[in-house]
């Protein structure tokens, strides 16, 4: 038997117990993170593939714990969702993104990711309405990104909340399209404005003929349903060229621009404005 030197018998703790304790300690750190001001938003630019024009940005949450290395949202969002903390954190994200919009050019749009838990555990349309009113920005400048997992729940409340968001004048994007149990019926059942093609298809565009076929088909769907189509995770010129040739409207990815602090976004947004 081995002690880990003071912290008990971690060496022999089964993996799931260890994971539970990691989640518990992250949850207690997350609990105070909002009031300690440990969250920031980064903004990843979106570009029109045809003109190269900067059209907007996606707000991406960052958590910097003072004693730890930056923690990926892919790791802490699930914990925030399990604990319900995603509700107050999500409100902070919405308020901060709306505030950022007041400093950006009038035609600039910002997208915010919404968790299914925000729909389940709060009146998310009411929250969005409050943040819009407080900031005074035009609702059409805000987009919300949701994933298919929300639609799977397939309940009346979800549809109602999406309709309420739509009625406010914000636009709705279906994120990570093609990765879940996509049902094409979702496209007519819910009031989407935008489809975001998942990075996994973009990244294999050049190597897997299936990916090119899927992307081309999704662009066609977008055209038929009058939806804007944006591709995420664009990393190479060849990917960008292929997306453009398929008729994809917009692109987002490391080739075009990395997530950046608001100050950096303000610089590229106002430069683009004065062209
Ligand atoms: P997502 O919504 O699919 O966001 C895109 C992710 O891909 C971001 O990771 C972004 O930094 C990354 N990315 C962008 N371009 C490229 C590229 O060219 N190549 C590669 N390899 N990656 C790229 P990030 O910021 O780590 O966010 C991960 C996920 O966390 C997001 O995936 C989203 O689901 C979630 N998330 C982030 N911020 C929020 C938030 O405020 N609220 C909620 N509920 N979820 C959030
Ligand atoms: Ca997203
Ligand atoms: Ca995405
Ligand atoms: Ca994705």
Automatic annotation (TrEMBL):
This is Diguanylate cyclase (GGDEF)-like protein/PAS domain S-box-containing protein. It comes from Allorhizobium borbori. The chain holds residues 442 to 716 of 716 of the full protein. It comes from the Bacteria. Residues 23-273 form the EAL domain.
